[in-house]
Amino acid sequence: MPQQRTRLLSSIFGACAAAALVAGCGGQPEPAEEGTPEEHPPGHEQQTPGQEQQTAEAARTAATYGTFAPDAKAVTYDPALVPDGAKVDLASERTNGTTKITVELEGLVPNRAYGAHVHTKPCGPTGEDAGPHFQEKADPVKPSVDPAYANPQNEVWLDFHTDAEGNATATTEGTWSFDTRQDANSFVIHESHTHTEPGKAGTAGGRLSCLNAKF
């Protein structure tokens, strides 16, 4: 009788061991094979070690110059030098405290020098409606013609020279605080390159056109 009980217990243990091999006794999941990549749920991609994320804020304004209207984006005041139908595309991108501004123009007078600046006010029926140049540090004397204030670091200058097709591109970079101020509202093209000498610094002749823009 004891021998029969011993043989019965041995049979039960043997059956359990066999079942464990087939079904994984205890219900524990099988470990992943070595070298198999771990899956990540969508939207949780792994970041490469040392990879840094840079935040950038960008603004872009594209328009076609024409006669003034209350809802116009781009206005020409001198169609002989900034013709109706000329195109402007202005992009402003701020990254890590630095702003890069690029303007592309098409359809202007070929092989000609122009001045260009960011101004404080929106465009109006006349070029003067755009107000003075944007200045990071405002000159207490108006009009501002002192090189200490009227310079391409304190103001935003985008002078350019057109090619044989009347097209041009200009780019500038600076640390202007557009993100905390509301006095940069337009891009104005002038009739000549910008002066730098005392008494004339910042001046560039008549205002030929205006673009309402965001920076």
Automatic annotation (TrEMBL):
Q: Where is the signal peptide?
A: 1-23
For bias type Low complexity, the affected ranges are 44-56
Sorted alphabetically, the keyword list is:
Signal
Question: Superoxide dismutase copper/zinc binding domain spans which residues?
Answer: 88-210
Which SUPFAM superfamilies does UniProt cross-reference here? Cu,Zn superoxide dismutase-like
- Presence of the UniProt keyword Nucleus in the record: no
Annotated stretches, region: Disordered: 25-56
Q: Which terms under GO biological process does the entry name?
A: superoxide metabolic process
PROSITE patterns assigned: PROKAR_LIPOPROTEIN (PS51257)
Going by the entry's taxonomy, the superkingdom of the source organism is recorded as Bacteria
InterPro entries registered for this protein in UniProt: SOD-like_Cu/Zn_dom_sf (IPR036423), SOD_Cu_Zn_dom (IPR001424)
- Alphabetized Gene3D superfamilies for the sequence: Superoxide dismutase, copper/zinc binding domain
Q: Which GO terms describe its molecular function?
A: metal ion binding
Q: Write out the similarity annotation.
A: Belongs to the Cu-Zn superoxide dismutase family.
State what protein this is by name. Cu-Zn family superoxide dismutase
What species is this protein from? Saccharopolyspora antimicrobica
